[in-house]
Fold this protein.
Amino acid sequence: MRFFLDTYALVEIFKASKSYDKYADVESFTSILNLFEFYLYLLKNHDEETAKKNYYDLLSFVIDFSDEDLFEASKLKLQNNKLSMVDVIGYALALRNNLKFLTGDDQFKEMKNVEFAK
């Protein structure tokens, strides 16, 4: 199975959380927006060298979003205003690319095409 890693998943994999062990080596992708959030997390909690190393390590896993992804994400955001812009774009990307959306974000727990891990 192939996965789209949201920022929550990126952080948990980085922290080597037990519930994310099985996802560390799966075929996975993310967006530049999620990579930005992950970089910011690393800057806040570690150092710039760690942040940049991880950023560049993950850059090849980034998939671009299209206008259609933004349109779909906007519809989802209208339905659930609690979801962040980055999350709805990532979810739309996952759907379009036939990727399971991996997250621990409670807002996605009951949604279709989501692999939920806390």
